[in-house]
Specification:
Layout (H helix, E strand, L loop, with lengths): L1 H27 L6 H19 L3 H18 L2 H18 L10
Helix pairs in contact: 1-2, 1-4, 2-3, 2-4, 3-4
């Protein structure tokens, strides 16, 4: 249980860090940044977090996989980290847990 809470905390920190980094990317460009790309990435990240908070781990795993793919294609480490965290948290939340009360 403690490991699950730690992974959830790392996932939340990764998504918040991604949001901060995307904000820096938009604020740092003097020209016209690709706001549709930035908004899409942030929307995917928060959709994955919402899936975790509403106990729908499949949404988190899918959005994390999409973010991981986008980060890999554009070689952006902040998107890669957020995607990996969402995939790991989504898959770990969706797997059944072994208990000691199973019938023998």
């Amino acid at each position: 249980m403690a490991l699950e809470k730690a992974v959830r905390g790392v996932t939340i920190l990764a998504v918040m860090g991604l949001t901060y980094r995307m904000g820096q990317l938009v604020a740092g460009t003097g020209g016209d940044p690709d706001l549709l790309f930035v908004a899409g990435v942030i929307l995917l990240a928060f959709l994955g977090l919402a899936g975790l908070m509403r106990d729908i781990p499949l949404v988190s795993a899918i959005t994390g996989f999409l973010l991981f793919g986008i980060g890999f294609l554009f070689l952006t480490p902040s998107i890669l980290v957020a995607g990996m965290a969402l995939v790991v948290d989504g898959v770990s939340s969706g797997t059944p847990r072994l208990t000691n009360s199973a019938p023998v």
